[in-house]
Structure formats: C-alpha cells, structure tokens
Specification:
This protein has 5 helices and 8 strands; from the N terminus they run E-E-E-E-E-H-H-H-E-E-E-H-H. The strands form 2 sheets. The chain has a 5-stranded mixed beta sheet. Strands 7-6-8 form a 3-stranded antiparallel beta sheet, with helices on one face. It binds zinc ion.
Length: 231
C-alpha cells in the first residue's frame, strides 16, 4: 500500500501498487470504525493480498484483506519511515497508471523489506539506487555507456537529461559536470542489488540525484521529492 487517505466519516481511500494491474485506487468502507473487520490490516507500507470488487467508478471496493507483511520495524524510526514514504511516493509519481510493471512491485517490496530489516539502509545512496532502478523500469534510464549526443566512449564529463545521459567534453555545452565518482555511482547502482547499493561521497550523491531528477522531469514530466538537494 502506497497511501491511505481518510474519506467521509469512516472510510479510507487506498492507493495500491499491484504486480499485474499497476497502480489502482480502492475504497475501504467503514474501516475507521473500531469494530471494522480489517481496519488494522490496511496501513501504508503493508504488503497485502486484497479482494476487490469492481464498481462503476474509478475506485474498487475492498471486500477482503490478508496481510502478507506489515514491515512493522520500519515504523519504529523516523528515518526508515521517511525512506519508505519517499520510495512509495516515487513509485506513485512515476507509475500512475494501471499498466502492469511486476518488476516495480517486486522492487518496492524488496525496498520495504530491506528498510524493515536494516535501518542503516535508510540512506541517500539506497534511495538513489532505488530511483535509478525505477527509471530503468520506466524506460527512461540514462545512457551511461557512451556520450548520449555523439557516441564517444571516453572523456564522459557531463550529464544532460535533454540528450538522455552522459555526454563527452565536446558535447557538454548544455550539460552539468558529472564527476567520475558520481558516474561510477550511477553505473554501480544499476549493477547491484538494493541491499548492495554502492556508497559515495555526499558531493557525488548530489550529482547523481541531479541526474536522476532531471531525467524524470525531462522524460516523464515527473518531479520527484528531493532526497539530498541541489548538486
Ligand atoms: Zn559527445
């Protein structure tokens, strides 16, 4: 569950990310009443198995819920809670339709399980690696192997979202400088599992974040919530 919003007197509107139906909205009626059958089973970051009734509008109606994982430990600390909220928010913004992306579901499930198991993973490098993998799933991962403008494979010194990735020293007029360490981070973030996401200096992470943010703005028209701030 990505999000849960209070609605009317005792209902909740839920934003769910599903393996086969992408992002969907559902209404859970009466769940804020004390005697609700499944009120306690409908919290953000829960992984649930849910039975939905298709109504006439855009919203499904929840008729049954089984809890698969509550990820209870990640609620104990503000930083894991915040990292989980940012992960769900990035999925919400980049994948807002019912188009199926089972790999995004799996990625989010992995990220929530990781934050639940190991609070030390609530770090910027992990959050950025997660976003790089989301860009890959969304089909807007930056080109990193060669200059996105001319194909040159050496002297890759800048990053241009408009060009679609790294650019060489002759093509860097519209780019911002991307240092070697930041470049390495972007490559390694894609090449490793989330649990093994590489670490990097604050400066490199800020550049990596700028590259990721500009890619999603330029190619998906999505503004991601900042993790670190300007490079
Ligand atoms: Zn070039």
């Amino acid at each position: 569950m990505l999000r849960s919003i209070r609605y009317a007197e005792a209902d909740r509107i839920l934003h769910l990310y599903t393996p086969l139906h992408g992002r969907i909205g559902a209404i859970a009626k009466g769940v804020r009443r004390a005697r609700s059958r499944f009120g306690a089973r409908l919290e953000p970051f829960f992984q649930i198995r849910v039975v939905l009734h298709e109504g006439r509008g855009d919203l499904f109606t929840v008729t049954g819920v089984d809890t698969v994982a509550t990820h209870g430990a990640l609620r104990d600390q503000a930083r894991t809670l915040d990292a989980a909220a940012r992960a769900c928010d990035a999925v919400t913004r980049l994948f807002e339709t019912s188009e199926p992306h089972p790999e995004v579901f799996q990625l989010l499930a992995n990220e929530l399980a990781l934050l639940d198991r190991d609070a030390a993973q609530a770090r910027a490098a992990n959050g950025l690696a997660f976003r790089m993998k989301l860009l890959l799933a969304a089909g807007i991962v930056p080109q990193l192997g060669a200059c996105a403008e001319c194909g040159e494979v050496e002297h890759l010194r800048g990053f241009s979202a408009a060009a679609g990735g790294v650019v060489c020293s002759s093509c860097e007029s519209a780019a911002f400088p991307l240092e070697e360490e930041s470049y390495r981070f972007l490559v390694d973030a894609l090449g490793h599992s989330l649990a093994q996401a590489p670490d990097a200096s604050d400066r490199a992470l800020r550049q990596a974040e700028r590259a990721i943010t500009e890619m999603s703005e330029h190619h998906a028209h999505v503004r991601l919530r900042p993790l670190l701030g300007a490079a």
